[in-house]
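Proteins fold reproducibly. Next comes an illustrative record:
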Amino acid sequence: MVRPVKPRMVGFLPPVQCFQPGDAPASGVEVVNLSLDEWEAVRLKDYLGLEQEECAGLMGVAQSSLQRILATARLKLASAVVEGKAITIRGGAYHIVGRGFCHECRREWPFPADPGSQTHRRCPSCGAGNIGRRGPGRGGPPWRG
């Protein structure tokens, strides 16, 4: 019996869920599906340049699992680019984790899942009250302070 896939933590939903070659017709193009956990692994490792241990920790998986996720994602991306296929990003076993963000010191931290929580009304680093929340839909590089 196959072991069920443990949901991976994803920091953000992708701002765009479909990419298509510019000179391809709107229909009839072969599609490669990248799961959200594969997208997150590529975002953390290749786009943000984090170390594998840090990526694995942020996603809540073992480093060996992260390596397998990255290998699968990179093969799909290479196939799409080389063969002119469209790419969609959806599905997979994931759980979205929001982030708190300080506008003063630019620090990020895991934000409580409950938006009504009184925790982190101030930045845990500098104590400023000028904080925001980053969550689904925003996936830019994190600020490091």
